[in-house]
TrEMBL record:
InterPro entries in alphabetical order: ClpP/crotonase-like_dom_sf, Enoyl-CoA_hydra/iso, Enoyl-CoA_hydra_C
Extent of the signal sequence: none
The keyword Lyase is assigned to this record: yes
Listed name of the protein: Crotonyl-CoA hydratase
GO molecular function, a single term: 3-hydroxyacyl-CoA dehydratase activity
EC number: 4.2.1.150
This protein's record includes keyword RNA-binding: no
Sorted UniProt keywords: Lyase
Similarity comment text for this entry: Belongs to the enoyl-CoA hydratase/isomerase family.
PANTHER family: ENOYL-COA HYDRATASE, MITOCHONDRIAL, ENOYL-COA HYDRATASE-RELATED
């Protein structure tokens, strides 16, 4: 199935996973509801992320919304009366979402959110747990938990606070207001505001660099961001894998020869 047909398919709410060269793509597709995520869509994410993360041909994973008008407008609230109607069902639903977000956060490869249009609620959580977030100029961010009376996951809020600062995080939650891409960039929620050609170039650049270096960098930076050094052994092991790899020899030789390196991830 082509990427165009994937984008146009909206008959069944789903998340499409496909590979475009060295780029793995996760496409959130529920266009009639601005790509709101159903229970089944959340449930499908861990397996799809795992498949892209373990594919040796994939160098970077892009998360995006179908249709170009929304990244994801959060969880499908129309299901809450059935899926979140008592303590047992709330736990079941939340565990389902937690597994999806955890799978994204723990991916070894670089993950990039491409945010076009609406990015609300659980959609913000997906973007937060990608390594990088690039938005279009017309992107809109909002966490409307206070309007619905739901509790936003505490780990997501801690990540939000680390990313934008406690005061901005509290304003986002206390006001439930919408933020444009310029505001989101200024507070640190968005890495950069980019048009499509620039986004495609950055993703291609990431995909063309040494994957073991990316993995080692990601482990170390994530461990440091959590404020403790429990991940130091994993970081040191990943760094050593870089120096013991064929890619290290290739990168060194290519630099000396003044040619473009050809990395294999080995």
């Amino acid at each position: 199935m082509s990427s165009d047909s994937l984008m146009q398919s909206a008959s069944v709410p789903q998340i499409h996973a496909h590979i475009d060269g060295a780029i793995g793509r996760l496409v959130i597709d529920n266009q009639p509801k601005k790509n709101a995520l159903t229970f089944d869509m959340w449930a499908s994410l861990p397996e799809q992320i795992g498949r892209l993360d373990t594919d040796p041909d994939v160098r970077v994973i892009v998360v995006e919304g179908a249709g170009g008008k929304a990244f994801a407008s959060g969880s499908d609230i129309s299901q809450f009366g059935e899926k979140r109607n008592n303590a047992e069902n709330v736990k079941l639903y939340n565990d389902n979402v937690d597994r999806a977000i955890s799978a994204l956060a723990s991916a070894r490869k670089p993950t990039v959110a491409r945010v076009l249009g609406y990015c609300f609620g659980g959609g913000v959580a997906l973007a937060l747990h990608c390594d990088l977030r690039y938005s279009s100029e017309d992107a809109t961010f909002c966490i409307p938990a206070g309007k619905v009376g739901v509790g936003y996951n505490e780990l997501w809020l801690q990540r939000l606070g680390w990313m934008v600062g406690p005061s901005n995080a509290k304003e986002i939650m206390f006001t439930a207001r919408r933020y444009g891409s310029a505001e989101a960039f200024r507070m640190g929620l968005v890495t950069r505001v980019l048009g499509e050609p620039d986004f495609d170039q950055i993703v291609a650049d990431i995909a063309g660099l040494a994957p073991l270096t990316h993995e080692a960098s990601k482990i170390a930076i994530d461990a440091g961001a959590r404020g403790f050094d429990q991940g130091r052994k994993a970081s040191q092991d990943a760094i050593m894998r870089c120096f013991m790899s064929q890619d290290y020899v290739e990168g060194r030789d290519a630099f000396t020869a003044k040619r473009a390196p050809k990395f294999t991830g080995r």
